[in-house]
Amino acid sequence: MTIAGTPGDPETPLLDDTVDGSADHKGRPARRSTTGRWRSAYFIISVEVAERFAYYGIQANLINYLTGRLGMSMAGAAENVNTWTGAGGLLPLVGAFVADSYLGRYLTIVLASLLYILGLGFLTLSAVLPSDCQNSNQITSCSPSQLQIILFFFSLYLVAAGQGGHKPCTQAFGADQFDGQNSEEFKAKSSFFNWWYFGNNFGIVIAYTVLSYIQENLSWGLGFGIPCIVMTVALLIFLLGTRTYRYSVKNDERKSPFVRIGKVFIAAAKNWRTMPSSVDKGTPNHQVSQQFKCLNKALLTPDGFSQENGGQCTIDDVEEPKAVLRVFPKENGGQCTIDDVEEAKAVLRLFPIWATCLGYAIVFAQSSTFFTKQGITMDRSIGWGIDIPAASLQAFIGLSIVLTIPIYDRILVPTARALTGKPSGITMLQRIGTGLFISAISMVVAAVVEAKRLKTAKEYGLVDTRDAILPMSIWWLLPQYILFGVSQVFTMIGLQEFFYDQVPTELRSLGIALYLCIFGVGSFLSSLLISAIEKATDGDGHSWFNDNLNQAHLDYFYCVLAGVSAVGLSLYLYFAKSYIYNKGSTL
């Protein structure tokens, strides 16, 4: 990217007031005093709050819409919810690629928001079409029109595509407004991730409470239309902040980071016959890390010669210091450089952490599916003849997050900082691990509560009555929702900061996308797990996911998930202990 202005030009900012690697909306070096920081972050947080409000306004009650208006079975509806959620979690990889390689984060956010709004508009249209399936709380025999089904799923996945461009860019773009090289802004950036998630969950709480009530008691069309309006307003607010943003400067001389990293893996694969010791002899130890030495082979050609000078410099030549510089130059005519290899190692280093968090993601998928269906069978009365929507109980996840984040940021972090001397109090990996442990506990609690619910159905002779309301308060579900929320304060925010911080600067949208696709893959795995258990247990008529929940065994399913969480946590601790931070941090 070319920056306008020359030294001495009246429009050129003073060097001590500029932010390295950032430009303003006119392409000039970004001034610290007039761009970025919280003044810009507020605009970006606002569009993210609206996006979360819209997304969870759909997801919170989606299983009830599918089993009610579209007449699906409970297991089928749960699989559809998980598949849609999974697609929404994987598409950010595409959005990150487009943003980091071509459009930039700002333009990607704008285009993705427009796509989002279009999807919400079509979703609203599909909901106002007449349907024979009007009861959203019961499984009924109905056949919605083919047009309604096609339009509904088309618009649903259009929203997922919009989220794919929106999610990886808004958070990375928001964090870009803080200069990590400035001590004051570095502390603000760490706090930004906490308050970002606080704002997210403020939008989610409103969606769970207000939209769930509107959808179940007033109109599905209105319940889907309000998010469309809110997203439109939020996009306008985001555009108002255009003049205040800091935009990352792209190095026009270097290839796309995706191309560079892909080239490293391809070159290393081609040179797989080269002995690691041969590579080590030609590698300056102070420049190349010792982890994942196999990728160092990308610095050589398959015949063991250097990648430049027409093969005149051999491995033996690199014993001389000058030859070392010739074999491993910073820029070598388009071949892999040491910087390229280190970038590839930084990304590869993340995958053990990524993989061991998939168990957490499987657990995460349950709050919007089976938790909600459990609530429908329980006493939801809060007095004065008012029944709360079962989906609205998910608001307590957001409420627990909103209440826990200030405690964490203002009390726990300063206390831990005084004890450990670390700016963030505890390391990112310690924070993630704490949340994984709490998540496993939440599944144990969920299994105990579900066993209690089934026992109540048996005691009152309601096992064979599918639509019966049990004399057991829905508030029994509250502890598992609260534990879910507290675990997110640790794991979700920790993962966001970790994947943003530990990738190369040009790949920060990809870092956020990698974090998001944990939950996309987790949703797909949850769907596969449900499908496998359904096939294994349905043969004898005692399916764990029977449409009559009083004959189902979600308690067994939650025990399985508790076991999955325990295994995932054990593997996570093993890999976290050996993780090497990119910026000199230690676990």
Report the mean per-residue pLDDT as an integer.
79
Unreliable stretches (pLDDT < 50, length at least 5) are: 1-15, 135-140, 305-333
> What is the percent of helical residues?
55-70%
Q: Would you list the SSEs in sequence order as H and E?
A: EEHHHHHHHHEHHHHHHHEHHEHHH
Using only CA atoms, what is the Rg? 26 Å
Please count the helical segments: 20
How are the strands of the largest sheet arranged?
Answer: 2-1-3
Quickly give the structural class.
mainly alpha
Q: Summarize the biggest pleated sheet.
A: 3 strands, antiparallel
Overall shape: globular
The end-to-end span amounts to: 37 Å
Strand content is under 5%
Oligomer: single chain
Number of strands: 5
Short recap of the structure:
It contains 20 helices and 5 strands.
